[in-house]
Specification:
This protein is of the alpha/beta class. It has one domain (2-161): Rossmann fold. 37% of the residues lie in helices and 23% in strands. It has 6 helices and 8 strands, in the order E-H-E-E-E-H-H-E-H-E-E-H-E-H. The strands form 2 sheets. Strands 1, 2, 3, 4, 5 and 6 form a 6-stranded mixed β-sheet that branches. Strands 7-8 form a two-stranded antiparallel sheet. The longest helix is centred in the last third of the chain and has 16 residues, at 146-161. It is globular and about 50 Å long. The chain starts with a strand and ends in a 6-residue tail after the last helix. The mean pLDDT is 86.
Length: 167
């Protein structure tokens, strides 16, 4: 079974989440391709997909939104899981759910959307990003829940073990 794992990231933290998910799926015996959304030229040969994005100002990044729009018919034919990486701190800030998650989940019939805490390092942010982080009073730090991310990937692998490959 071949699985596409793709995520849009501005500073690399969400790409690291995607790589971790890909590694867990591969360790479970699945064939995995981890790619940037802009590198995905089609879904032929893929039996499932895990798609994610960093969340900025409540939105997914454009490259992954474009991929989903471009490949919505193909994505609707395979099992798909979505994830967001964005809020930081304890409790997470901003607390609001990503505005793109529900509509995109519905559009392609994704099995689930999972939101994970993210990573903020003000030194890597541009002026506008630092302003948003300050406005929502988000703290610096890496809040990504690695054990939770790995457990979710293992859950996906268990589900996929029960799904026949299409290729």
């Amino acid at each position: 079974m071949k699985v596409l794992v793709t995520a849009a990231s501005r500073h690399g933290a969400t790409t690291e989440v995607a790589a971790s998910i890909g590694a867990a799926l591969q360790a479970a015996g699945l064939e995995v391709s981890v790619q940037h959304p802009g590198e995905v030229t089609g879904l032929d040969g893929y039996d499932a997909a895990v798609i994610g994005s960093a969340v900025y100002a409540g939105r997914w990044l454009e490259p992954v939104r474009d991929l989903i729009q471009r490949e919505k018919a193909a994505l609707a034919q395979i099992p798909v899981w979505l994830f967001s990486s964005g809020p930081v701190g304890d409790p997470p800030k901003p607390a609001d759910e990503c505005v793109d998650a529900a509509p995109l989940t519905k559009l392609i019939g994704a099995r689930e959307h999972r939101q994970f805490a993210g990573d903020v390092d003000r030194k890597r942010l541009g002026f506008g990003e630092r302003l948003i982080v300050a406005l929502v009073r988000a703290p610096d730090g890496d809040f990504r829940p690695w054990p939770e991310i790995e457990a979710w990937a293992n859950e996906i692998a268990r589900v996929l073990a029960e799904v026949p490959a299409t290729v």
